[in-house]
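Morning!

This is the sequence you dropped in the shared folder:
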Amino acid sequence: MALGQDFLMSHNSLKFWASVAAHPALRSRPGVVFELYNEPHEGGGFTLTPECFLNGAGCRFAGYNQAVAAVRETAKATNLLLFAGKGWNFDLPWLLENWPTDPLGNCAASWHPYEFKCRYLSCLNTSAAVTAKYPIFVTEWSPGYPQSDHSPSKPDLYSDKMQKWAEDMPGTVSLFPWVWNPGGGDEHVNSAASDYTGNAPTLWGEQYKAWPGPGGGIARQQ
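The structure's back. Tokens below.
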């Protein structure tokens, strides 16, 4: 049972990815994407160095290059791989400077630009260097809490900006909504759905569902 989110992947993660990537239903299927780790981060005196991030050197964690090897060399899988940067997968420039090695080059960045970290989207300007080399899959994002500039009669303006940004870079940026605590509480405003069935979308979820852009059209669950 998971007791919390660790700073980076464990050595058991390598066994996991080798097993998952080798599964006949998943291996080398174009529509199956492997996001190797959700949110690398620091804390409690732990500093995520490039050596640790890439090769597991100088720390107790496994590095991205080892995870890539588990997929590419052990499992012989060709699936698209997503790499996440530090800062809870927010620091795209750092990720670009410390990009893992994929012998197939079939890889992209994942990113989590929540509104409370990226209120005015000026941080999107930092993505330009990444999109020049790799696509970005925004695998988590949402309006802030409380949703700024939001009312029942008006679509969320942060979502409008995010969707416009993705539309301006076709083939480079894809957005996928994040369902966080649909049951309620302070985080409920981060939810695209009001329950775990996905059948009761919030206003934000309805807005995303109606969006025809890259990644839009469905309010998926995590």
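Headline: The chain has eight helices and five strands.

More detail when I'm at my desk.
O.
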